[in-house]
Amino acid sequence: MMARNFDGDLRRARLVAILRLHHHDDVVAIAQTLVEAGVEFLEVTVERSTGLRGLAEVVAAVGGQIHVGAGTVLRESDVTAVADAGATFVVMPDTNPAVIGVAKERGLFTLPGAFTPTEVARAVEAGADYVKLFPASTGGIDHLRALRGPFPQVAFIPTGGVSSENANQWFAAGAVGVAMGTNLVPSSGSLEGLLERASAAVRATAL
Hints:
By secondary structure, this protein is an alpha/beta fold.
């Protein structure tokens, strides 16, 4: 596996592609297409029964080239499972200090979800590496800008409603990176137009 610097790579690439799929039959083909487009961070969500298997398959296929993490990690037992499957980072929709703690014990980078100032502070106190602003579309870009006032050192990654068209607005408001989900990779797993959309997303987020 090639040597990589997670923080440096994420702050340079500024894009996490989320694979929230109804089924994982084509997950490797999807991942390979995203890598071909230049995506360097993939998040495979594990809320469905086939998610963990899909994560392991993606790690085996492209884990030596890019960073592969697990999403929708809700419980401490989930951390153990995704770490054993080869994930190098975990993404959560909420802020759970116990989950963050186990992830850090396993050497995984953590991206817990937070929306309010209290949740952001809780994530920071628990040792989060980044804070996933979620759902970003609910509060909008002004919400991120407001949170940056009391939390100027927090590395925010807006998730939910972020697209190639509005990514630059999120960066202007202070995001260090963005995550794109079903508007980039449809939950159906269709490969149609994926290479073009992913290439556009990489261009839109490149420094």
